[in-house]
Amino acid sequence: TRTTRPQRLLKAVQDRAIRGNPKSVISVIDHYCRNQEWAMNVGDEKGFILDSVVSELNPQTVLELGTYCGYSAVRIGRLLHSGARLLTLEFNPDYAAVAREVISWAGLENTVQLVEGASGDWIPRLREHFGIHTFDFIFLDHWKEGYLADIKLLEECRLLRKGTVLLADNVVCPGAPDYLEYVRKSPLYDSRYFKSHLEYTKAEDGLEKSVYLG
Ligand SMILES: Cc1ncnc2c1ncn2[C@@H]1O[C@H](/C=C/CNC(=O)c2cc(-c3ccc(F)cc3)cc(O)c2O)[C@@H](O)[C@H]1O
Ligand SMILES: [Mg+2]
User: Fold this and answer.
1) 117-150 pLDDT, tens digit each
2) If you measure from the C-alpha of residue 144 to the centroid of ligand 1, how many angstroms do you get, rounded to a whole number?
3) Which of 138, 150, 170, 201 gets mutated to test ligand 1 (max ligand atoms within 8 A of its CB)?
4) How far, in Å, are 3, 11, 89, 97, 207 from residue 92 at the CA level?
5) Is the CB of 89 under 6 A from ligand 1?
6) β-pairing verdict for 137-140 and 165-168
7) Are 6 and 95 in contact (CB under 8 A)?
8) pLDDT tens per residue, range 141-195
9) What's the rounded Cα separation, in Å, for the pair 30 and 36?
């Protein structure tokens, strides 16, 4: 049977990227998705904003919701200092299998841990299962209608602390209106929009950065 888009993206990484070199994995995926086959990675333009938020924060514990092919897990993981860890949740086993290969090709298997399953099932178990106290940084990039439920669940599970930064992809395209309204209205958050473009296109999109005030 035909290969899937994630499998073709992985093949491009294995054929063209240098093993153990996250920067080359990122540039191979961006080149492939810009020139051969679009895919819903955060991409290079919004990725640059993601990089600056992570670099400024220098987080020790990071959570990502929605791994897909592992592009943003590699983007974030490459910037983490020794001892820092990224947990990334992915419920589609085919995407998870591709993402594990991409993360391993980048040489980040000791920094990035992919956990297979639904965010709603796993968030309540992260503390007891992984010994996580609170997260320093959270990247939301899974189904857009799931953003709001998951941020509320993270609050309930007390996995946020004063200063935890949440960064949400696609708040304009495809859009996450209920999430945006919540973080912009809630006194619990100090929220700011970073205008950018939908990956590999000229369409508007952007990232919402929300700091939990506790
Ligand atoms: C509750 C739960 N738990 C665990 N994993 C979960 C999960 N819910 C979803 N996932 C996983 O996360 C990824 C899903 C990503 C969804 N992203 C988008 O839909 C998306 C779409 C566009 C887009 C924009 C314009 C268009 F015309 C078409 C598409 C751009 C983007 O950047 C996107 O992120 C995917 O790997 C899915 O399996
Ligand atoms: Mg996205």
Assistant:
1) 999 999 999 999 999 999 999 999 999 999 999 9
2) 7
3) 170
4) 16, 19, 10, 9, 24
5) yes
6) parallel
7) yes
8) 999 999 999 999 999 999 999 999 999 999 999 999 999 999 999 999 999 999 9
9) 10
170 is catalytic: yes
Question: How high is the pLDDT of residue 1?
Answer: 76
3-state SS of 61-80 is: EEEEECCCCCHHHHHHHCCC
Helix, strand or coil, per DSSP, at residue 210: strand
Q: How many residues comprise the chain?
A: 214
Cα of 195 vs centre of ligand 1, distance in Å, is: 19
pLDDT tens-digit readout, 47-100: 999 999 999 999 999 999 999 999 999 999 999 999 999 999 999 999 999 999
Which residue type is seen at 178? D
CB atoms within 10 A of CB 90: 27
Helix, strand and coil content of the chain, in percent to the nearest 5, comes to 45, 20, 35
N-terminal to C-terminal alpha carbon distance within the chain: 51
Q: Is 158 in a helix, a strand, or coil?
A: coil
